[in-house]
Design goal:
alpha+beta, 4-stranded parallel sheet, 8 helices
């Protein structure tokens, strides 16, 4: 393992375990990252909390990259809590850092390929369908004119989602062309998905299944006061023991994406059929933690460190 020189702000007593880069959101403290760091350090890891935006490609470094806190050397593992928002160039650069870490033999959770597949809802939906997983009928097109033509040909209500987005931000419902958002609000790409609930539905719920290292770690019902059921938008988390079908679909979705850990959102249509709604490669779990006895950060840390210290990346 690479043993970097200690830098300011780190503990004087250097742990002898793996050297970990924990990538967090730019400019903000993170409840999840603090717990992950504590759990990793309890297992002997040395953890440097930093951001992908602070990294650099640098030909003067032996490894070709400069990761803050590692003195030009590589960490043994990298845990990605956030890529952070940015321009197309910034996001491409940050994902490039993650690609380069993996190509250099660093164990990355989740690696760039999984993040790319999850963050682009159109790609994730395509991969689910290709794998034979049930998903709501969805069409994704460029330009408002093409979106208007699709809604004009189908009278049912649709859910419109930003192609890149999370926590229910920017999600809206539309039943006709006049209700479409302006192009600048969605980058002129329209992700349109059938609204699955009955028109007279008064119970708004779906399920978040948290998967880690090939197993279901925990799950919850997300019960909303409105049709948007994200906990970030005010929905209530309720403890839930997933049925076999829910577990099977969640595990299959994560395998399809190639993620090490993920939050999988499931929903039932008006006829009760279970479908894969979305997947998140950097899932928040504060709501889930409030209704489960499992210490999610502790289990994530244990699984991640085990992956870091075992066989090389295939």
């Amino acid at each position: 393992m690479n043993k970097p020189v200690p830098t300011s702000g780190l503990n004087d007593a250097m742990p002898s375990g793996p050297q970990i880069a924990l990538f967090v959101e730019d400019g903000s403290g993170d409840w999840h990252a603090r717990r992950l760091r504590k759990a990793m350090e309890a297992r002997g890891a040395r953890v440097v909390t930093t951001t992908l935006s602070a990294c650099a490609f640098d030909t003067s470094c032996p490894c070709g990259m400069d990761i803050p806190g590692f003195d030009g050397l590589l960490p043994d593992g990298a845990f990605v809590r956030s890529v952070s928002t940015g321009t197309l160039e910034q996001i491409t650069f940050r994902l490039g850092i993650l690609h380069a870490l993996r190509e250099s033999g660093v164990r990355v959770w989740n690696e760039a390929r999984a993040i790319e597949r999850c963050v682009d809802k159109s790609t994730a939906t395509f991969l689910f369908q290709k794998a034979g997983l049930p998903t709501p009928p969805t069409r994704v097109v460029e330009t408002r004119a093409r979106a208007e033509a699709h809604l004009a040909a189908d009278a049912r209500p649709f859910v419109l989602k930003p192609l890149f987005g999370s926590q229910g931000n920017g999600v809206r419902r539309a039943q006709g062309p006049d209700e479409l958002p302006p192009p600048e609000a969605v980058g002129d790409v329209y992700y349109m998905q059938h609204y699955l609930r009955a028109p007279d539905a008064t119970l708004f719920e779906d399920w978040r299944v948290f998967v880690c290292a090939g197993r279901v770690l925990s799950a919850m019902v997300r019960r909303g006061k409105t049709w948007i059921t994200n906990v970030h938008q005010g929905a209530e988390p309720v403890a839930h023991d997933p049925c076999a079908d829910m577990s099977r679909l969640a595990l299959a979705a994560v395998t399809t994406i190639g993620a090490d850990y993920a939050g999988v959102d499931l929903i039932r249509d008006a006829d009760g059929r279970l479908m894969v709604l979305e997947i998140n490669s950097n899932p928040a779990w504060k709501g889930l933690q409030s209704v489960t006895a499992a210490d999610i950060a502790d289990i994530l840390a244990a699984d991640f460190l085990q992956a870091v210290t075992k066989a090389p990346i295939p």
